[in-house]
Every structure is written in structure tokens, then in C-alpha cells.
Design goal:
47% of the residues lie in helices and 30% in strands. A 4-stranded antiparallel beta sheet has the order 1-2-3-4. It is built from 6 helices and 4 strands. The chain is of the alpha+beta class and 138 residues long.
């Protein structure tokens, strides 16, 4: 009896984990988190690995890609803090907000577009940075 309960519990946990990993929004967040971590660690190869084929066509060299990020997306390259905001699916694509407290003390919203790949993974196809208006003083 106890063994049957243990097996059932393991199956429920496994199914729950599988469902979480299968969710496109969760997979997209995982890709974004991993790329930001690669930026923080100055790991150009890892950061570039999360770029879509379209981005790789524009930046066929990981060093050029990494330099572009450093210059044009400083708040992603060195975020103070970040958290996930709203997300939505548009067809097979995922649009994900990332709320960033920049190292400069300003708040930013990065709007990510992620596209599915033939293997079921997601890759980053573009990011738009928007400076966020400050909230009321606390």
C-alpha cells in the first residue's frame, strides 16, 4: 500500500514537472533567464546560443553579437535586478516582458520575442527596450 502511494506520488510529480517544462511561456522564460546569466558571466558563446536563426543571420559572429549587446542593451548585459512581467502567445511565438532595474537606477522594460525551433525549443528573435516611468516615491 505504502509503495503504491509512493509510486503514485512520483508519477504526479513527474507529470507536473513535464507539464511545466512543456509550457511555451515557461520555456521562453528559461531561455531569457539563461541568456541574461550568460551576459552577467561574460559568456558570449552561451549568450549567442539563445539567438534565433534570424538574429544569427544579422550577427553571424558571436563576438560581434556580444559587442552589440554591450553597446545597445547595457541594461540586459548588466541588469541590477530583473523580474518577469506579462507574457502572451501570438501563434507559436511568445512575447515576454522583463522588468529591469538598471545599474543606473532607472527602470526598464525589455520586450522579448521568442520563436519556436523545429526541435521544440525557443530562441530569442528580438528585444525592444523601453524606459519605464518611475513610480511614486515610497
Amino acid at each position: 500500500m505504502m509503495r503504491a502511494i509512493s509510486v503514485a506520488l512520483c508519477l504526479v510529480l513527474a507529470l507536473g514537472v513535464g507539464r511545466t517544462l512543456a509550457d511555451p511561456v515557461d520555456r521562453a522564460k528559461s531561455v531569457i533567464r539563461a541568456q541574461i546569466q550568460a551576459f552577467i558571466e561574460d559568456d558570449a558563446e552561451a549568450a549567442y546560443s539563445f539567438a534565433s536563426p534570424g538574429i544569427r543571420a544579422k550577427f553571424p559572429d558571436q563576438a560581434v553579437f556580444f559587442e552589440m549587446v554591450k553597446k545597445s542593451y547595457q541594461h540586459l548585459y548588466r541588469p541590477g535586478n530583473f523580474a518577469f512581467g506579462r507574457s502572451k502567445r501570438v501563434g507559436d511565438e511568445v512575447i515576454q516582458e522583463v522588468l529591469i532595474s538598471g545599474a543606473d537606477g532607472k527602470d526598464w522594460t525589455a520586450i522579448y520575442e521568442l520563436v519556436p525551433q523545429p526541435d521544440g525549443s525557443y530562441r530569442i528573435n528580438g528585444v525592444m527596450m523601453v524606459q519605464t516611468a518611475p513610480g511614486p516615491a515610497l
